[in-house]
Amino acid sequence: MSLGTLDRTTPSFMRQGPSALSQIVLYIALALLLMLADVRWRITDPLRQVVSTVLYPVQWLMVQPLEFFSRGSDYFHALQTAQDQADTARKEVLQLSLRANQAQELLQENERLRKLLDLRERLQAPARAAQILYDTADPYTRRVVVDQGQVHGVELGSPVLDDAGVLGQVTRVHPFLSEVTLLVDRDQAIPVLNIRTGARGVAYGDPVASHGGGLELRFVSANADVQEGDVLTTSGLDGVYPSGLPVARVVRVERRADSAFARIYCTPTARVEGARHVMLITPTAGTDPARPTAEPAAVLKKGKQK
After folding, report:
1. Rg for the chain (alpha carbons), in Å?
2. Residues sharing a CB contact under 8 Å with residue 275, sequence separation 6 or more, in sequence order
3. Using the 8-state DSSP alphabet, how is residue 270 labeled?
């Protein structure tokens, strides 16, 4: 073996340093010394400031995901709370609107009932209150069903009124219900009186919507004094309807050169579509005074001959 290849380092068994216990004791003493020195002279404050300054960006970056998650959670929680409050407020507004509509409907209904009571006091014929239940299923007629029948004393042919005027006539009586044919039915007719002129006539039901009315005053001469806005009331000549009840208002008058009669269209004063509470009155035929017979006239003639 050549001299240049010899290992000149110290063998490992000859290189011995401080023992592990000595190192631990040294490190503990050094730590205590540094702690006392830091408490006494604050020698590590500049180092702490430098380290804090250097580590601040790292700390900020580490905290951002947590802050983002926390803010996102707060945002979605606030959004859900706002949506719940909006839904609650919307429901409350709908409930208040419904109550307001119901209150308005009740006020209107009370006003109509008061008018019916006033009308009942003015009528000389017996009358009873009733409520409209539903329309009949027949599409070719204009009839409604009321909650009064034979057991309540309803008579066939009884006039039916609401607070605004004549609505129709009882045409069928059942034990607990009655059918009322409205004035606008094509088979219905009612004697009327023009308040302005005093002329009498007969109004017939006219359910054609294009005419703009609901009643037609027929067999009136073309040169008769009839104007738009004339009010028609019952004449009382038929022995069914009491006289003076509002029936209709003239809305259009057509006079043609090729016809001797005018076409007069009227709209009912009663609420044909929206009536709910009505009044059934006894026909006046049973309450009219008896007409004089021919016997008194014959007796008077014999007395003159003597």
Report:
1. 52
2. 132, 144, 162, 167
3. S
User: CA dist 31 to 17, 26, 37, 151, Å?
Assistant: 21, 9, 10, 113
Q: How many CB atoms lie within 10 A of CB 165?
A: 21
Collect all residues with Cβ–Cβ distance below 8 Å to 191 and sequence separation of at least 6. 200, 201, 202, 234, 235, 236, 237, 238, 241
Say what the pTM is: 0.58
Measured between alpha carbons, how far is 44 from 49 in angstroms, rounded to an integer? 9
What is the model's pLDDT at position 69?
80
C-alpha to C-alpha distance for 30 and 149, rounded to whole angstroms: 115
In this structure, how many other beta carbons lie within 10 angstroms of the beta carbon of residue 150?
Answer: 14
Chain mean pLDDT for the chain: 80
Instruction: Give one word for 7, left, alpha or beta, with left for phi > 0 and alpha for psi -120 to 50.
Output: beta
**DSSP H or E run through 190:** strand 189-194
